[in-house]
Amino acid sequence: MPQIVSLSDRAIVKHVDFLKECGFSSKQVKKMVVGCPQLLALNTDIIKLSYDYFKTTMGRPLDDLIMFPAFFTYGLESTIKPRHKMVAKKGVKCSLAWLLNCSDEKFEERTNYDSMDMEEMEMESSFDFNTLMEPRNDESSNYEDDSDDEYL
């Protein structure tokens, strides 16, 4: 993500501090940023909402976010909540990558009891940057406002 070099120190520190407040160590934050550099450019209010949902409703360990930091790049209302509700309703335990790193059509296939492949659920953990290029239904942007007004 070449745009990362244009981020201000203040913006980067703000994101890193938030992640540390969530309980991540500096080493874990580093691993997350290397795995998903977009994390430093996302809107922190959106990150907070997604993190709160992750901890309170999903009740998953922080290690899941370390393994799949791209979680924060997905729309909370359009993708995370509906998919989490679906797997929770069916009692399916899966990785965040299995849950999120696919198109809506692929997710439908995955959660169809007739074709649910538990081996695929375990194996598929790598992040696919192509999923970030798919259109989102969220009305708000997940990225920080690049306006210089706050720096004046």
UniProtKB/TrEMBL annotation:
BP GO terms, sorted: DNA-templated transcription termination
One Pfam family hit: mTERF
Stored InterPro entries: MTERF (IPR003690), MTERF_sf (IPR038538)
Species, as recorded: Forsythia ovata
Gene3D superfamilies: Transcription termination factor 3, mitochondrial
Compositional bias of kind Acidic residues: 141-152
Domain of life: Eukaryota
Keywords assigned by UniProt, alphabetized: Transcription, Transcription regulation, Transcription termination, Transit peptide
Name the UniProt record assigns to this protein: Mitochondrial transcription termination factor family protein
This protein's record includes keyword Hydrolase: no
Region (Disordered) residue spans: 129-152
Similarity remark: Belongs to the mTERF family.
